[in-house]
Structure formats: structure tokens, C-alpha cells
Amino acid sequence: MSHSAATRARQGQNVVQFLPVAPLIRIMIVDDSPVARAVLSRMISAHRDLEVVALAGTAGEALDALKAIKVDIVLLDVEMPGTTGLQALPDIVRLGDGARVLVVSSFCEEGAEANVKALALGAADTLPKPGAGNFAGRFSDVLAERLRRIGRAGVERTGEEAIARQEAASIVTLRAMPDRTLGCIALGASTGGLHALNEFLCALPSRIGAPIFITQHLPVVFMPVFARQIETASGRATRVGEEGMVVQPEEIIVAPGDAHLGLRRDGNQVRIALSDGPARSGCKPSVDPMLESVREIYGEGAVAVILSGMGRDGLDGSLKLVKSGGAVLAQDEGSSAVWGMPRAVAEAGLASAVLPPADLAKRLAARIAGAAWK
């Protein structure tokens, strides 16, 4: 309360304070069904912090609308006449100018390949349409929670909040990149991470002389599809980690959805050692146990890459890795669907680079090639 307002309050005068109002999350609905568009619009409009600003019946209409209107989230169906939602997804991400995409479709049932493909193409999240056994009548609440979770990252910040974010960004301090021989790459990601993983892996040299480990927050049913998608995109043999599996250079091993990915030495070999105990982050699989394990095995040769995701998973493991001489790279805010995990690492001063995924891969390629670091 200001000084003059406090004085008036002491004098018994009514004082009205106008608190800043958070901007509404602006949403476009893209679905070929008029009924679905109407139902989704009613559900969203029932929440005071959400606003439907555009409706489109085809992918083409959505792309045209994005040229003229600013939105925070595009709610996208998969199966539509002409260009499907998945086919249009990369263009929607490009024209959306930072808008997040939530794919809502009956094709996105648990374990469906459409889920992983949508996430890999740039969707921030997926959600199955309500059906038998889905959400027990709570779909409206689940949808609103999901929109809030991914939408705030796309809302333009103004005033004091923008200044605070700019000041926070200005104090991020980069560490020197170690020049040790690469022992391994350990990638951690969550919401928006599949697209980032693809960009990073595709930008790596074909030969790096080291294994790659991935912990991506996904349910166990997605893991076989996820591993196949990563193998196709990266051109590297990819396996879901199993207890005792021997680690090979140039190979990618992903954490199973029901256990943390760890490592152990067995003579001259490194083997997978899974664990299912609680992690501080509350995630399973969690990035932290993976980073602690690669620190123990590879030490100064370990490089962690923290990509898009909500929360702070990976922060504790990154701190321990840096203390042991390893390196940490973080995705930047502009390219992240949710700048939570990489932000925690960057603002803690643990990162040697904060860049888009492909540029992080190029930095790492320069280290592998022995280039000078600036």
C-alpha cells in the first residue's frame, strides 16, 4: 500500500487497491468437428483465466489464422480431412511464434504411437479425447489444468514481471567448458523434450566415440515407441535400458518408464544398473540418479544436457557432476516448451552453454573435435 493510501486508511477513508491481473491464456481450437469445437469452447470458457480467441476446422484455416492472430496455445486434433494435425504440426509450431501445441485426439490413447510422434514434432503435450473410462467425467478440469501448465510459458510478460525475468536472465553465469575426452552424454528432458531431443541428436556428428543416455519423463507404455522414434531420428542404435545390459559407444540407451537409469562397472565394461527407489524430484524415471551415476563412472568426461521440462529434476545431479569436473549444457528459454529444468540449471550457474538444442550439439561437436572454447 502506498504512503498516501495508508494515510487515508488511518483517517477512516475507504481505500481500493487494484492488483495486477494476469493476462488470459489465449487459445485456438483446431478440430474438423463443429460439435467438438463447440464443446471444447464451452469447457474452456468456463474458466476465467482461459480465453478461446480462434476456431479452425482444418489445418489450413489454422495456419492462415496464425498469420493474423497471436495465441498462447493451439489445441489441435490429429485426424482431419486434407492435411492432418500431425502433418501440419511443424508449420503450426513455426507460425505460432512461441505458441504451445496441445494435441487432443482419440488417437492419443495411452501408449499410442501418435503421442510420441506428436511430441517429437513439437507438441508440448498430448491428451486423449474423453471416452469410455477416460477421466471419469473430469475431462474439463483435466483439460484446464493441462492448458494452464503449458500455457503460462507462452503468455507474454509485461511490467514488473518482465523486468524481474530480464534481471534473472542477466545474472546467469556460464562456466568454462572442460576439454577432457568425451566419456558419455546424458540427456534429461520432460515436457517438450522429445522435439528438443530430436534436434540435439540430429545435429551431433555421426561418430562421437561415446554412449548416449536419455531420461525422458514418459510412462512405461511409451518407451518402446519412444526408443524406435529416437533410433529413426538419430540414426543410432537405441535400446530401452535393462538390468545388466552392456553399454556400447555410439549407442543410445533410454531409461525405462518404471525405473531410474544407472550404471556400474564390470571389469572393463560398463553395464546398466536400474533402481526404483524414490528420487528427490518425485519423478520416475528421474534425471538426478542418472547424472549421479554417470559422474561416478565417467567423471570429468561426462556431459549432461538438460532440455525442456517442468520442475527442477536434474539440478541436484548437475551440481554433483560439475563438482566432479563434468560439464552441463542447458536449453535456452526461447526454444523450450517449458523452461523449468534447464532454467534451474542455468540460474544455478552450472551450465557451460545455454542455447537451442541444435546449437548445444554443435558446441559439443567442437569439444569432441578439440576446437578452442570461448
TrEMBL record:
Identify a single GO molecular function assigned to this protein: methyltransferase activity
Q: Spell out the subcellular localization from the entry.
A: Cytoplasm
Residues with 4-aspartylphosphate modification: D77
Q: Which residues form the Response regulatory domain?
A: 26-144
Q: How is it modified after translation?
A: Phosphorylated by CheA. Phosphorylation of the N-terminal regulatory domain activates the methylesterase activity.
Query: Which residues does UniProt mark as catalytic?
Result: S190, H217, D313
Top-level enzyme category: hydrolase
Q: Which reaction does it catalyse?
A: L-glutaminyl-[protein] + H2O = L-glutamyl-[protein] + NH4(+); [protein]-L-glutamate 5-O-methyl ester + H2O = L-glutamyl-[protein] + methanol + H(+)
Q: Which residues form the CheB-type methylesterase domain?
A: 178-371
One Gene Ontology term from the biological process aspect of the record: methylation
Which terms are listed as keywords in the entry?
Answer: Chemotaxis, Cytoplasm, Hydrolase, Methyltransferase, Phosphoprotein, Transferase
Q: Identify the InterPro entries for this entry.
A: CheB-like, CheB_C, CheY-like_superfamily, Sig_transdc_resp-reg_Me-estase, Sig_transdc_resp-reg_receiver
EC number, as in UniProt: 3.1.1.61, 3.5.1.44
Q: Which Pfam families match?
A: CheB_methylest (PF01339), Response_reg (PF00072)
Domain statement: Contains a C-terminal catalytic domain, and an N-terminal region which modulates catalytic activity.
Q: Which family does it belong to?
A: Belongs to the CheB family.
What the protein does comes down to: Involved in chemotaxis. Part of a chemotaxis signal transduction system that modulates chemotaxis in response to various stimuli. Catalyzes the demethylation of specific methylglutamate residues introduced into the chemoreceptors (methyl-accepting chemotaxis proteins or MCP) by CheR. Also mediates the irreversible deamidation of specific glutamine residues to glutamic acid.
**What is the protein name for this chain?**
Protein-glutamate methylesterase/protein-glutamine glutaminase
**What is the organism lineage in this UniProt record?**
Bacteria, Pseudomonadati, Pseudomonadota, Alphaproteobacteria, Sphingomonadales
